[in-house]
Amino acid sequence: MKFRVERDVLADAVAWTARALPVRPSVPVLAGILLDASEGESGQKLKLSSFDYEVSAQVSVDIDAEDPGTTLVSGRLLAEITRNLPPQTVEISADAGKVVVSCGSAKFTLLTLPVEDYPTLPEMPRVTGSVGSDVFAAAVSQVAVAAGRDDTLPMLTGVRVEIEGDTVTLASTDRYRLAVRELSWSPENSGLSAVALVPAKTLAETAKSLTGGAEVSIALSETESGEGMIGFEGGGRRTTTRLLDGEFPKYRALLPDSFSSVAEVQKAEFMEAVKRVSLVAERNTPLRLAFSDDRLVLEAGTGDEAQAVEVLDASLDGDEIQIAFNSAFLLDGLNAIDSDIARLQFTTSTKPAIITGKPADEAATADYRYLIMPVRLSS
Questions:
Q1: What's the predicted TM-score (pTM) here?
Q2: Can you give the CATH number for the domain in which 273 is found?
Q3: Nearest to 58 by CA among 304, 240, 241
């Protein structure tokens, strides 16, 4: 095998493929990136692949191939090398169990891994529909923030993807907050109805990395054996991941449909005030908020320790309310809304609140909702 490729193109492709490499591979070959140089109808291509039996990643780039072939090398080492090469054309050749990477005056020799032991990557499921890549990345980032990180509750570490016709609903929860985002997409079948539970970490990394193309194609396998899979493709990159098993909470029942009060605050000022006042809060102690007609008072700390108070302008429609939240969870929700004004909707001080942006059209329903559980204050 022997080919030449531009350094930036190679480094970008290797870095993207290496992100799916397992930290502790169950077998040594899974630490490798498979390099396959070939010539097809679309020209000379290098296909880079990685797989850990859960997540697969694959990308193709244009090359100048002198001798097609396939080889397997340490993915993390190749990523480190390509990232640090000088900005010149890279030549890679493989022969007799070794791979030589040459670029300018730099030359590296790497040992190969046995290609014959590398597992076959899963086939991409049939495409289910497509969505704008930037819209998809933004929606996933808004929702993934609320996903659980406790692997003993795997169903909470995922994002639930619900497809009904031309609407996709994403939802995640860690039991203390819930994030829900609705977006429009272009399904292959207008009558499609499907549900998938996708690992949140994989989904977030994938959505963020596929913004190079205008659209992302989503492919969902329709198996009944529980071995479900979802695939994403865009900008010459494709990735697949196994779906999570388990029953996701019936989250729609948690979303209130009426409120006793609604407050609005400038988001940027609110976030800065939360960060400042929280400086005196001990770990896991709540941030207290008091909303009245035209102001919001933020407080943290008690009489036996450091205290902080800050007052902001705010509007309130409905009953005055005092409520307390985990400040980190509150900041996550405020950061996720794509509006300059944060709208907070309350029922009582002991029931969940909903954070949204202020919609441009008051009659419209917010496409992103962040539910946050209050912290009970000892009386």
A1: 0.91
A2: 3.10.150.10
A3: 240
